[in-house]
Amino acid sequence: MHLHGTAVDVAAPARVRSTRARLSTRLRSRSAIGLLMCLPLLAVIVGLVVYPFFYAIYLSLLNKRETAFIGLDNYRFLLSRDTFWLVVRTSFLFTFVAVLWKAILGLTLALVIHTLPTRGQRIWRGLSLIPWVMPLALSSLGWWWIYEPTHSSLNWLLALFGVNPKPWLSDPFWARVAVILVNVWYGTPFFMITYLAGLKSIPQELYESSDIDGASGPQQLRYITLPMLKNIIAITLLFSTIVTLATFDIVRVLTRGGPRNYTHLFGTYAFELGIASGDVPLGAAVSLFMFPILAVSAFFILRGIRRSTA
Amino acid sequence: MASQARRDFLKTAATGVAAAAAIGFPHVARAQTKLTLGLWDHWVPGANDVLKTIIEDWGKANKVEIVIDFITSIGNKLQLTGAAEYRAGTGHDIMAFSTWDGTFYKDKLEPLNEVAEAVIKRHGPYNENATYLSLQDGKWVTLPSPIGSHTYPLETRMDLWKKHAGIDVQALFPPDVKKRDQKKVEAWDWKMFLEGAKKVHAAGFPVGMSIASNTDSNDWLGPLFATYGSTPMSEKGDITIDSEATVAALEYVKELVQYMPADIYGWDDASNNRWLISGKGSAIINPPSAWTVAKRDRPEVAAQVWHHDAPRGPKGRFRGSLPFTWGVWSFGKNKKAAKDLLLHLSQKDQQWKTITASQGYDIPQTNAFLSHPIWNEIEPPKGGQYNYPVRGDEKLIVAGWPAKPDIGAQIYSRWLLPTMVAKFTQGGVPAKEAVKWAASELEGYKRG
Amino acid sequence: MIRSRRSRRTTALFVCYGAIALFMLFFLFPPYWMAITSLKTNQEIESLKGIPLIIQEGVTLRHYRDLFAKTDFLVYFKNSVLVTVPVVLLSMAISILAAYGLSRLGFAGAAVIGTGVFLVYLVPDSLLFIPFFKILAWLGLLNSKWALVVVYPTAIVPFCTWLLIGYFASIPKELDEAALVDGANHLQMLLRIFLPVAVPGIIAATIFAFTVSWSAFLYPLAFTFSSNQQVLTAGTVTSLIKGDVYHWGGLMAGALLACLPPVLLYVFLMDYYISGLTAGSTKA
């Protein structure tokens, strides 16, 4: 990331300046002002993210009525429940499948759009982002109507191809498909636009020279495009893993975790236990299970970014 | 009694105004008490407006400003709102609760003994079911309310059942309980229902009952299990779900499910209504909400709808119910006015009006008010709603009965029974395993 | 060689447009479906006959009319605006100051703060909402839309700061030097020199702030429950259509209208929107 570069750069011109006295005063005042300007941000981070995070940990160690400290009992309880393990499996499955498809479809569409003449790209690029721009909770409502058992337009379309109607929201397997499908619909545009920007930054000469060497399209893809996009692919995959794992809106609107808890993710299950059933400590424990995965992903993202700027 | 309360209230208000004027706070004279109400958004078209008028008229007469939020039960919104207000320590002065919800929040609900006892003294007792839910440890934590309170009879297309299943429900359950043929009524059991369901399914008009995370599912499965002698937990707190009776009931439902549409596992509370109104469904287990909407949108369907008793099981006949209650938060600012209003709404005049406005949907919780003529009169078909209030030998219960309210409330709100059933009938989990799962869930509910 | 490249190109284009058609169908079907449902009569919505993909029995504006006349839609809209405007202003102020401080005024720990900002962006709302619930209850802000003004910035400020740091860093240092020589203090420098030059970045960040604020769902669902405090997302999903057995026409109308502001913003400021989205990845 930029910060290492800028920190060093900013200090440099000051050093070149006049007397040493003025230099040190300048540096000190700049630091002070810099810090001052960051205070609101720090207040937000510390007060509204760091503190609640630790408070959540504290909460997860309390009993349901929040009158006694029970240590890791909530966690032990969760780990002994079938339903919780179902949530874990669903979360991993959902995240893995959805991110994979978003990446594949996003890359495909980016390649497709990139192949078009530049003038013609704009409109398709613009239209493709519509799923991303629509507020997810509201587009999920639209999808809910698409999946509605008696009136499903999707089933009607499938029937045109001779496919039997699917019980989208009432069968555990199809409900999972339904939820993943909405997430893929929503997230692919983001992958597409990111990869498209990445594709544009690949020098044309590489392709031209490989053309001369007789390289085919697929070969160019494999030996030029993908390696050049390696960093962007890695970063978007990791980012998306974090965001997809934390999905709430889609499941809440479409299935509310059902049928039979087969579409619950950590976020929705935490909401169900914490807010709907009134066991806030247990809900906190559930949502905290996400944290190790997020932390690991964040670690890899940071490492990837550091590597690419080094 | 209401007028005495009103007189007291006005006296206090007058004294207050005089005192305030003496101290020189003229704006107090214009200040009004304000009552906010969170009420259930009624299925029956027009019912909300009548209730609103009654409450606002009371407000005008008593110089109380009224604000009403009609909150839907779709998506458990009403339930969620109650939960949130409880946690927040802020919310509507009067809140509508369904079934068990008042139990969850009783430590922050104002005891309503004075109101309840006044009503009982004047109009007689509440029914057993309502008392079981509201009177806990000698305190009336909530007040039984007729608004929205309903039971779950069969709502059957009598023409389809007569034609395809050969069962005439109209004759079985005539609009006069004295005219019933007891022997035939005894024969109306789950086996007979299954055979009928098979035939109507073959004719293309299946019955439909949801097995999903909604109140409709709780409200037919709870009683069904009870008819087999299966209960989740005893009053003393022993887990009783692991029994032969439970397995027998599960096996029955598995058979019945063959003759129902596949998407019952994804139904919400309005789905069975839609199922009947569309003309495709031949029977649902539901209060007359489907009928009232059919009357408006598909009158030819409505004219053939007959409400009647549930089938008998090996251990008797039970009917599901979803009683509503009113609760007053103890952290509210206007508890006295709230109690006065509730007393007013519990009187015969008001309940008569709301029952009529609900087109017979609302079942009064005070036994004496069951003498309302609407169920005899409303049509078409004439007498179709006569058997909607319990006339025969069905025992009214809620899913979770007879467990102590603390546990019963969780059994209901965590959808224990529908989830257990779906595991077996849809998920292919063996019956014994599904029951064991339910037993372990019940252990979890005991956690504090 | 040239001919084969050209014919290769034509085949490629053909395949591309085919693929684009499929993607467009996929992406645009849901909003299309929502739109025509909102314009169909109830009878047509319910009926299982005919072709559902087109309107066969006449367009009706009834659902939209009812939306304004019979539901709390306008209340939700008003609340969304009342929440979004302060949130955007507040978030932008915090982000701009911090981005300037971090990118220009190097001080010990700036790098740490920068990384911290990035990490914080990764703590999702589905983790924070539970402690927030308790904190807001303690503050007495539960069931008030102002609770949202307090919590929304957590989702917005980190990314906007990060975004703006990228834009600010690309502004040439000579501008700084010139202003400092002229005796400008940092605030003046920020306002008079930086902001005008960084306008594309500011616009991109503002769009992001607006979109996140308008679309937020979990926080309003968890923290507000009275109808008069609901914002559009939570309100439309949970309270818009009450008790009615057939409600999809009105629901789709409400959902579409609620989507309109972010979509319009996107349509008119598309390039800024996209540059904001891609800023992170390309700079990384």
Q: Roughly what fraction of the amino acids of chain C lie in strands?
A: under 5%
Average pLDDT rating of chain C:
83
Shape of chain C: globular
Topology-level CATH name of the largest domain in chain C? MetI-like fold
Global structural class of chain C = mainly alpha
List the total number of helices of chain B.
22
Provide mean pLDDT of chain B, rounded.
88
Largest sheet of chain C: none
- End-to-end Cα distance of chain C: 38 Å
Strand runs of chain C, count: 0
State the oligomer.
heterotrimer
Q: Regions of chain C with pLDDT < 50 over 5+ consecutive residues?
A: none
Spatial extent as radius of gyration of chain C: 24 Å
In N-to-C order, the SSE pattern of chain C is HHHHHHHHHHHHHH
Characterization of the model:
The complex is a heterotrimer of chains A (310), B (448) and C (284). By secondary structure, chain A is an all-alpha fold. Chain A has two domains: 57 residues; 228 residues, MetI-like (MetI-like fold, Orthogonal Bundle), CATH 1.10.3720. Helices cover 78% and strands 0% of the residues of chain A. Chain A is built from 15 helices and no strands. Chain A is globular, with a radius of gyration of 25 Å. The N terminus of chain A is likely disordered. Helix content of chain B is 48%, strand content 14%. In chain B, strands 1, 2, 3, 6, 10 and 11 form a six-stranded mixed sheet that branches. Chain B is globular and about 65 Å long. About 2% of the residues of chain B have low confidence. Helices cover 77% and strands 0% of the residues of chain C. Chain C is globular, with a radius of gyration of 24 Å. Chains in contact: A-B, A-C, B-C. At the A-C interface, helix 1, helix 2, helix 4, helix 5 and helix 6 of A face helix 1, helix 4, helix 5, helix 6 and helix 7 of C.
